[in-house]
């Protein structure tokens, strides 16, 4: 098979868009203004094989990866534009930094609440929120083959290292995991850990396969490579090394779960994606898919119905439909909870039982993963029925609770508890510096 080379394009390559569509100088300028605040990266696969250039403005992948002036408030857009005109670098950087701080760069208090301690100091690049699962952020995997403009990890991509979570070189996360026998699942995440060379990824995976971490029975890898660069699994120069490493996980008797971020069924249709799926299934990896509902990308029933149906046909388990997190340009992309629920119900009621493994819509919050289960009428009051799928307090899981129906609410902070006893399920926990070492 012919080898493809990944070509990355950032803000400095905006002119490349002229090869694909009619675009005015003004539109390119607006793009670059927004790009001073939010990250932008696209690649040759997304440009050549995903985006339908006959109608780019309606295309889900154009919407997913490109920038739009409506992502910034008008006053913020004007402030960046003014700073660019003045040509004062420091001022522009300050303006951009101030806007970023207002865009809630760390939703769910990730920088402070979930970092565990080992021998009294925080283990960088590790998050331990739920007892059985640890998240590892490999330092070389904190970027992606293209960027989703809505991404809740966007602060990692804008060059501010203080906003970035990543392991240090000493790999203390391995020592932490050796001591925590309650951890059964390790999720390597990013960014996209598969952006790393196979030889670098091996440094993270191999230590987990030994007898001291026999309690780690599942290794999950969160990735969007299938959608953004499927050649990672097939023709990249170290694709065979990567597949061999993944196969070693399976051979060690562990469950290897590739947690694929798949936004739209078209991602599964290219020949490269199909080859990649077949290759992963052949080594015994289990493929699961998850994605948020994003306005203009996949906010309709038909898209989810096709997505889940196509996934099942190709051997992927539908896993989560998420609600967009409360960060970044959410106002541009968000979908009301009531609408997300309608989309979920509409799609799930039209697919076979095998595709109904998808849970949703789910808000991943400080307190845990909240599922919007339905709408009910209590004595004339329309009410959201909610429950926790995962919670910091395991007692909360699968206990229904209620909030007043509001068709404009897009996140948990827009919900009013129905009664006093529902209040605790919706209030944020006290900030905790770290999970105790035990
Ligand atoms: S692939 Fe995932 S981590 Fe990367 S930009 Fe998209 S949503 Fe964010």
TrEMBL record:
Gene3D superfamilies: Aldolase class I. Coiled coil: none annotated. SUPFAM superfamilies: Radical SAM enzymes (SSF102114). Its cofactor is [4Fe-4S] cluster; pyridoxal 5'-phosphate. Keywords: 4Fe-4S, Iron, Iron-sulfur, Metal-binding, Pyridoxal phosphate, S-adenosyl-L-methionine. It comes from the Bacteria. GO terms for molecular function: 4 iron, 4 sulfur cluster binding; catalytic activity; metal ion binding. InterPro entries: Aldolase_TIM, Lys_aminomutase/Glu_NH3_mut, rSAM, rSAM_sf. The keyword Plastid does not apply. Belongs to the radical SAM superfamily. KamA family. This is L-lysine 2,3-aminomutase.
